[in-house]
Amino acid sequence: MNNCRVCSDPIKPFMSFGPMPIANGFLKEEEFATEYFFEMAVAFCEHCGSFQLVEQPNAKRMFHENYAFFSSLSKYMQAHFKAYADNVIERVFKGRKDPFVVELGSNDGIMLRHFKDAGYRHLGIEPSENVADVARSQGIETLSEFFNLDLAERLVAKHGHADAVICANVMCHIPDINGVAAGMAKLLKSDGVLMFEDPYLGDMINKTSYDQIYDEHVFIFSATSVSWAFGQHGFELIDVLPQITHGGSMRYVLAKKGSHAVSSNVAALLEKERAQGLHQAKTYVQFKRNCEASREALVGLLDKLHNEGKRVVGYGATSKSTTVLNYCRIRPEHIEFISDTTPIKQGKFSPGVHIPVKPYADFMKNPPDYSLLFAWNHAAEIFEKEQAFKAGGGKWITFVPKVEIIK
Ligand code: TYD
Ligand code: ZN
What we know:
Elements: E1 2-3, E2 10-11, E3 13-20, E4 38-44, E5 51-53, H1 59-62, H2 75-93, E6 100-104, H3 112-117, E7 121-125, H4 129-137, E8 142-143, H5 149-159, E9 162-168, H6 177-187, E10 188-199, H7 201-207, E11 219-220, H8 223-231, E12 235-243, E13 249-256, H9 264-276, H10 281-307, E14 312-315, H11 319-327, E15 338-340, E16 357-359, H12 360-365, E17 370-373, H13 379-385, H14 387-391, E18 395-398, E19 404-406
Parallel strand pairs: 6-7, 6-9, 7-8, 9-10, 14-15, 14-17, 15-16, 17-18
Antiparallel strand pairs: 1-2, 3-4, 4-5, 5-11, 10-13, 12-13, 18-19
Helix pairs in contact: 5-6
Bound molecules: thymidine-5'-diphosphate and zinc ion.
């Protein structure tokens, strides 16, 4: 029996994606024999509404000195994080004296740089040393530790309370959500604001984008579950701002209860989630069926193209692709290689199914007949960049919201 990480009620998995490797665990051939796998099952807690992984690998297996994820590689994401920083400055910093912002999971400093450039007091907390080093080398204050109540107390003693605590694509990674929420409550001023954004459950259910589920994402949040989880620690949801990033995300704005006015967006979204059935177990039973149908369609298409002798290459060795490749048991005969612009992934193999990851130059040199869009969340940016591929007869395959060859 497992218990909900938020409310401790007993939970039962409603589906398993099977044995899964570490999503960002790109590896060399000599590491194949010792590759780590865990059973990737998911559960929905009917009591507090949280969607979660039943088992999550140890954090040290996922976030280490060779962590392969650098935020600043995408131009679109750079613009997104500039807008996020502006949103914090506008919403929280206005009228405050010498405000202080703390970002959890600040990666290579893609968001904090804007606070630094504007001369604001800032601190990034980033456990992965290699990405934190990139931030530090650019003068962005960064500490390589995991955030918890103990660290919050030390930060308050050293820097004072924070006006804003922010994160992006980080909160959903943290299994001890109660420890972190308690730490945030400690770290923030009484009128401080907490803002975080993560892939949104409502979008995942609507689009069958099950590839949002992988080892790092222990939670897929909704306004309902965030409100419950943080309510336990004296916070209330004061606004919600939908984002198009990561295929559909939500930015949650929280503050200590009664300290700020609550936007009508909050009640509207809670109502929308009820209408969508996000609080009901049967919604997740249907989601499971949709995942199975998606798998069948994708494997069917790849088998057909393989039999026709077509060349298929994956575009973007995303963390998400690890779930798709392993759940669908896609093999190197289906996909010749995966093209990716991240140097640390190139020359390695994809986790679990061991498809070679090659530099983007290889894609350019010898464009395939079909390109399977693993980085579907960056479709707009990619289609704009890859007009020559299409003009030369290349076709895109997507699997979100449904498996299809894009016309
Ligand atoms: P991301 O979208 O952040 O997905 P995830 O969170 O699932 O890892 O990762 C994008 C990956 O795709 C990253 O490895 C870089 C790669 N990529 C390309 O190779 N080319 C591109 O044009 C873009 C936008 C991304
Ligand atoms: Zn619960």
